[in-house]
Amino acid sequence: MLEKINNLLQQVEEFSVSNKEELEGYRIKWLSKKGEITSLFDDFKSVAPDLKREVGQRLNELKTKAQNKINELKEKYESTADNANAQQQDLTLPGDPSIQFGSRHPLSLVKNQIIEVFSRIGFTVSEGREIEDDWHNFSALNTPENHPARDMQDTFYVETNPDIVLRTQTSSVQVHIMENQKPPIRTISPGRVYRNEAISARAHCQFHQVEGLYIDEQVSFADLKQTLNFFAKELFGTETKIRMRPSYFPFTEPSAEVDISCTICKGEGCNVCKHTGWVEILGCGMVDPQVLENCKIDSKKYSGFAFGMGIERITMLKYRVKDLRLFFENDVRFLKQFSAE
Ligand code: DAH
User: How many CB atoms neighbour CB 210 within 10 A?
Assistant: First the structure.
């Protein structure tokens, strides 16, 4: 058997091929299921025990050498084939007009616009995770178990582990950031969220939010108001006004909801603003000191504001889309209307 192995070793070292097919021939001859080297491994079982060590080593050496050489040659033939293909392409040919260009999804367009506006005033972009634990989605945000505020959001729980949820809000990213960074913090976090809601023209079980967070020494409500005022004018036009109404969120105190003057009737009153002249676009407030402490930030030294908005809602207002479901159906007749943006 040793002789056979040595013989094959020599063949492996010396063989050469002139094309891929020939190479495949050698691979089959030696290494396929019934190949010569493979069957030597079967014969190995009957080798006398005192020879097993030496024969085994040689046999392994043979197999590795054969495998390596075949792989090496294979790579060589594949890369020359790629080169040949590339050389056959005529790069001066005009484009194929039957290939249609895609366009950005309206939600991506608006997400990018929001990122652009906030990046101009120093906000970075951070991402969290869509599968979250209870602490980051609720408890750290002042919403412990059995807190009535949990009913504000219908949650998808993971069946086998009720501690794990599909995040219901991008506010969860706030917690990750505050746990891992030291103030000053100035960041926005766009992302997808999930709620167990019946699908309709105004609600969906998945949608997108952008969270904002600003933590530093002496951050005040006036800073929050100016930031959102700037944002509204940049996104909806300089004539846009904002108004703040007192509200409640478990993780901010005080909390507010922000309306903008109706972009459609300019405040005169129409169907979209239900004849009030105002439409709600986001929730916000001063980060509750308890939330800062939950994330190990000294609430005596630092304060901050947070806000959260739905990207679908803003997109519907900007582009006058009447049915939320359109964003998830991916009907090209709808999507291609945004190709000029
Ligand atoms: N997470 C809230 C929601 O989904 C929105 C929100 C409100 C976020 C106030 C905030 C905030 O950061 O301060 O309804």
Answer: 22
Sign, CA torsion 131/134/138/139: negative
* Mutational test site, ligand 1, from 169, 305, 314, max ligand atoms within 8 Å of CB: 169
Q: Return the DSSP state at 44.
A: G
Pocket-testing residue among 171, 204, 207, 253, ligand 1, by greatest number of atoms within 8 A of Cβ? 171
Do strands 157-158 and 206-216 pair parallel, antiparallel, or not at all (unpaired)? Answer: unpaired
315 phi and psi, to 5 degrees? -65, -40
Ligand 1 atom showing the smallest separation from residue 213 Cα: 12
CA of residue 180 to ligand 1 center, whole Å: 20
Long-range contact pairs involving 2-9 (C-beta distance under 8 Å, separation at least 24): 2/51, 2/54, 2/55, 2/58, 4/40, 5/40, 5/55, 5/58, 5/59, 5/62, 6/58, 8/36, 8/37, 8/40, 8/62, 8/66, 9/58, 9/61, 9/62, 9/65
Architecture of domain 106-338: 2-Layer Sandwich (3.30)
Average pLDDT, the chain: 92
156 φ, ψ to 5°? Answer: -90, 115
- pLDDT tens-digit readout, 140-191: 999 988 887 777 778 999 989 989 999 999 999 999 999 999 999 999 999 9
pLDDT of residue 72: 87
Q: Where are the domains of the chain?
A: 2-88, 106-338
Q: Ligand 1: residues whose CB is within 6 Å? A: 169, 171, 211, 249, 252, 283-285, 306-308
| Beta strand ranges found along the chain (DSSP E) | 124-125, 131-133, 157-158, 161-166, 185-194, 206-216, 242-249, 252-261, 278-287, 303-310
- Find the 107 Cα to ligand 1 centroid distance in Å: 19
Q: What is the pLDDT of residues 189-242, one digit of tens each?
A: 999 999 999 999 989 999 999 999 999 999 999 999 999 999 999 999 999 999
